[in-house]
Structures are given as C-alpha cells and as structure tokens.
Amino acid sequence: MPSETLEEYLETIFKLSERGEVRPTPIAEALGVSGPTVTATLKRLESRGLITRKGGAVVLTDAGRDLAVDIVRRHRVAERFLVDVLGLNWDEAHEDACALEHALSPRVMLALEEFLDNPEVCPHGHPIPTAEGVITPVEGRPLCDLSSGSSSRIVQVAEDDEAMLAYLGSLGMYPGTEVTVCEVAPFKGPLLVEVEGATYAIGRDVAEGILVEPAKAK
C-alpha cells in the first residue's frame, strides 16, 4: 500500500490530468512543495509502476489511476460526512478530509456510503467514484459563458481553493442554488449576478470555476 505522501501525489496528478497534460511544476504548486521534492517523489511512483514519464509529462498507469480514483472516492465521501453530519463548513472540510481519506478501510467506506445514502457528488458538486471506479461526469457550463438575463442552477464549484470556497459560501453560492446573470461587463470584466434576492459582482476568474445548468422552470 502506498504511503500517505504517495497517495497525495496520485490524487493530485489525477485531478490535474482532468484539465490536461500534467507537468511537475503544477504538482509542486498544488502540494506546496519544492521542485526537487517532486522529482524525487515522482521517481518513487515510477519505480512502483504507478506513473510513467512521457516527454516531461506525468501519466498515471492503469494501476496508478485505480489507486488515485479510490483516494478521490475516500476523500469526497469523507467531505460529505464532515459537512453533512458533523456540520463543518465546506471550505474547512478539505484539509480534514485529506487526513481521513488515508484511514478509511474498504469496509468502513462501504458502511459510510450506506450511512450517507450513497451520495453521488461531494459538497462542491464533484462526482464521487463508485467502488468499481466508475466516475459519472457532471454536466454543466462555466457561469462566465452565460449572457445577461440567463438563469441557471449551480452544479459544481472549484474544490481546492479554501479562500474561494469561503467567499462563495458567504454569498450563498452552493450547488443547487439558482443564480441569474444580470449584467456582463465587456472586455472580460465582472458579472453582476443575483443570488437569492441579493446582487453581487463576480470576477470572471471566479465565474470560470462555477459550473451551472439551466434553471428548472417554476
């Protein structure tokens, strides 16, 4: 079984791979470690057959992906427990879930999922892999792509920035919340949005990390 450190690397590589090619520098930035530390750890992962290096890119092997998906599953189920049962704020749960994910055995995981009524997504709207490793993508489009007058429902927000999650939480912008775009400033300016009767200016970079779907007709 990989160490907690190696599991953290596998999880990070998997999440980065969902956005495109993975390089060592983004891994270092995501984990808050130095370049030499990443290089040494990647060599350990490669020696265990969990990654390969192709032209400088880091690629998970089948075995590495299986482990990474299982870690993501444990992390997101742990977040659901911390938020739904213990009442932690969604921006605080990430760090504690990082600690819990390494301690959850398969038996405890199954019991925890059953206790939580088999949740499909984490508190931030990201899919929870099944025990078989199946991941059902969340459908949506970035809030920043909507035009003025569009109403939508939040389905997912970026999960790794605690400060951003705290900010969105202060605005009540959680998955399931309806949001209306009132105005879109030109030249990649902010969006003016209405959330539960209140109006806020949202930066374009923030809106890029919020996935939405059309609001259901009332």
Please render the helix and strand layout as text.
Blueprint: H1 4-17, H2 24-31, H3 35-47, E1 51-54, E2 57-60, H4 62-85, H5 93-100, H6 106-115, E3 141-142, E4 151-157, H7 162-170, E5 178-184, E6 191-195, E7 198-202, H8 204-208, E8 210-214
Antiparallel strand pairs: 1-2, 3-8, 4-5, 4-8, 5-6, 6-7
Helix pairs in contact: 1-2, 1-4, 2-3, 4-5
Estimated radius of gyration: 19 Å
CATH architecture of the domain at 141-214: Roll
The first-to-last residue Cα distance is 51 Å
Biggest sheet statistics: 6 strands, antiparallel
* Strand order of the biggest β-sheet: 3-8-4-5-6-7
CATH superfamily of the domain at 141-214: Ferrous iron transport protein A (FeoA)
Question: Number of helical runs?
Answer: 8
Which regions have little confidence, pLDDT < 50, spanning 5+ residues?
none
Query: What is the overall silhouette?
Result: globular
Order of helices and strands: HHHEEHHHEEHEEEHE
What is the overall pLDDT average?
A: 93
The fraction of residues assigned to DSSP E strands is 15-25%
CATH topology of the domain at 141-214: SH3 type barrels
- Helix-and-strand structural type: alpha+beta
Under CATH at level 1, the class of the domain at 141-214 stands as Mainly Beta
Number of strands: 8
Approximate helicity band? 40-55%
